[in-house]
Structures are given as structure tokens and as C-alpha cells.
Amino acid sequence: MAINLTVLVGECSRPSEIRVLESGTRLGVVALRVKDTDGPATSVPVTVWDPPPWFDDLEAGDPVVVVGKVRRRFYRVGAATGSRVDVEAEIIARGGKDRRKLVTVTRRIQDAIEALEA
Fold first, then answer.
1. What is the pLDDT of residue 86?
2. DSSP 116
3. Mean pLDDT, rounded, for 50-60
4. Out of 28, 34, 64, 82, which could bridge 10 as a Cys pair, Cβ 3.0 to 4.6 Å?
5. pLDDT at residue 53, rounded to an integer
6. Residues facing 31 on adjacent strands
7. Which domains does the chain have, with CATH numbers?
8. Cα separation, 99 vs 8, whole angstroms
9. What is the DSSP string of the chain?
10. pTM value?
């Protein structure tokens, strides 16, 4: 069994960006600075489909919790094909401010652990 589950707890390394696609769908993009206990910080790009209204106001340094999946996306650059890896958020919550979302995050992690144990 394989599970593609990523949990990030960190701070925004820059303000969030909103893009509106031709379909009218809102796409949010933010980079989270995450740090292991014994290593340097890493900036991880996060994509959020139809982000909540508060997402628009995220600034550098704001704490965020994300549960999502690692995705590799391909795109064209002239005649070449490029790719990038990001985390596609299933759940995003403001760190310490959104208790109900944090409960949902915990439940999603527990479900994944139970699936591994089954």
C-alpha cells in the first residue's frame, strides 16, 4: 500500500498569491518555510484550489498548517517540457487560529496511519 500524504507546519516565506484561471477557478499559491529540528529551513511551494478568503491576506511569517499530496506538474517552455514539484493542499489552516481545521488535520493523519496498519 502506498500513501501520498504530506503534513507541513511552518511559516509563509512570502505573501500568498491568487490566480484566477480562465474557468473562474481561484488558485492560491504560497511558499512555506519548514525546518527540521537538526537542519536548515526549506521553502516548500503549496498550491491551494479555491482557497478560503483568509488565504488572500497571508503575509511572510504567518504560521500555517497544510495537509496535502506531493504533485509533480509538467509545463511547456517554448519547445521544452519543464516540471516542478509542489504540495497540493487538501486542508489548510492558520496555525493556532483555526481550531476546527486543526482537528480535521489530526483526523486526516490518523486515517492515513490506520490505513497503513490495516
1. 95
2. H
3. 94
4. 34
5. 92
6. 45
7. 6-117 (2.40.50.140)
8. 16
9. -----EEEEEEESS--EEEE-TTS-EEEEEEEEEE-TTS-EEEEEEEEES--GGGGG--TT-EEEEEEEEEEEEEEETTEEEEEEEEEEEEEEETTT-HHHHHHHHHHHHHHHHHHH-
10. 0.81
